[in-house]
Amino acid sequence: MREEIMGDHQVSQRLLDMARAARGPRALSEGALRSRFGDPDKVEVAVGQVWRARWEDVSVPLLLLAVDAREVHAVPVTIDPSGEDERALVVDASQTAFGVEVTAWVSLADRVGLGVLDRPLDAWGDGMVQWVQQAVRGKPGPAPAGTRAGRAVSSAFDPSADVRAALADDLARLQQAPRLPVQETGRAVQGQGLAALLKDQPPDLALLIQVLGMSQAEVMDLLRGKVPLRPDQVDALAEATGIEATKIAGAVRPLPLDLVSEAEHPRLRPVWIRRAQQLKVSEAQARMTDAYGAFALAARETGGQTNWGTRLRHYVRDQERAGDDS
Fold first, then answer.
1. Contact between 106 and 170 (Cβ < 8 Å)
2. Would you say 55 and 134 are in contact if contact means Cβ atoms under 8 Å apart?
3. CB 263 within 8 A of CB 287
4. I need a surface site. Which of 112, 153, 167, 266 has the fewest CB within 10 A?
5. Gap between the Cα atoms of 230 and 294, Å rounded
6. Using CA atoms, how far apart are residues 175 and 18, in angstroms rounded to an integer?
7. Strands (E) located in 139-296
8. Which CATH architecture has domain 3-175?
């Protein structure tokens, strides 16, 4: 929920308080979560899990219904305040790790980027997950044991109407979280090129050579979108032209899907948060900087198929060591 309703820190503390009160195997303590899902840097995202999705001041638990390389299809789950509507599934406290009755909002099913997932909180049984999946398709069956179908919102003044509206706003904000530019299947590898991006302000070749520290031939390849840029060059161009860094990076060359899938996977979120603090930039900027840095380094090397997960971690490790030595 939004910060004024349920802030990120408040969510975490509330769930931990519930876990302590429950004193059961499904408690939401740090140790119990590690026992169920493994180390955060090795966790896999799977259907049926409930994740905390977080970006900036928005934090919402989501029940995952489908997972692909860059997105999840999910429904929001409310704990306190809960609320319900006629399409919701209300789950008894005994069926989840939360220790209280919770609501899965079928009417708000939508897709969000994988990169907003923060940490797993629970995993629901197949019966409940399948009911929600069928209900999203408009074919709900009888409510599974330990659950019930939600009650209709009685009026615009019903508190559940406010909860539903706030959730819809939060999901929209999660969907707006920045993503990395990705190479589209079936298209040429290079991006549209800086020349196309700068069509309304023709580039000053001498200025670009000076700003980027590249030769004329290299700048020409850059303008045609044939070569990647180092992160510092992206930033320099953004400052010189006034164009957003993400647009420049994408125009030069989108990233391979495998690299983007690794960089946006929630197991790397602690890395990007740490790097954002070190670089004094946003989490999205830190992720983009290191993803393009790893990509540029790989483009200058030869060898077999790239393991982007390993490549990213090694690149970040080297950058952090370089920062410690400076």
1. no
2. no
3. yes
4. 153
5. 9
6. 29
7. 147-149
8. Roll (2.30)
Task: Map residue 269 onto helix, strand or coil.
Answer: helix
- Are the C-beta atoms of residues 254 and 246 closer than 8 Å to each other? no
Cα separation, 315 vs 325, whole angstroms: 15
Helix (H, G, I), strand (E, B) or coil at 65: strand
- Does residue 81 have a cis bond before it (omega within 30 degrees)? yes
Q: Provide the CA 273 distance to its chain's centre, in angstroms.
A: 12
Per-residue pLDDT of the chain (326 residues; tens, 9 = 90+): 544 434 444 544 555 455 445 444 455 778 888 888 888 778 899 999 999 999 999 999 999 999 999 999 999 999 865 799 999 999 999 999 988 899 999 999 999 999 999 999 999 999 999 999 999 999 999 999 999 999 998 888 888 999 999 999 999 999 999 998 887 665 444 455 677 777 777 668 888 888 888 888 878 877 776 666 777 788 888 888 888 887 787 676 788 899 999 999 999 999 999 999 998 988 998 998 899 888 878 876 655 577 898 899 999 999 998 876 65
Contact 192, 251 (CB under 8 A): yes
- 240-249 long-range contacts, Cβ below 8 Å, gap at least 24? 240/207, 240/208, 240/211, 241/198, 241/201, 243/197, 243/198, 245/285, 245/288, 246/178, 246/181, 246/284, 246/288, 247/197, 248/194, 248/197, 249/181, 249/288, 249/292
What whole-number distance in Å separates Cα of residue 207 and Cα of residue 186? 34
Two structure tokens written together for 66: 């489908």
CB atoms within 10 A of CB 43: 20
Give dist(CA 224, CA 166) in Å, integer.
Answer: 45
Domain ranges of the chain: 3-175, 194-325
Q: Are 109 and 79 in contact (CB under 8 A)?
A: no
3-class SS of residue 127: helix
According to DSSP, the β-strands at 110-113 and 102-104 are unpaired
Nearest to 103 by CA among 80, 78, 135, 74: 78
Give the C-alpha separation, 252 to 214, whole Å. Answer: 15
Please give the structure tokens belonging to residue 223: 């303008």
The token duo for 47 is: 């259907």
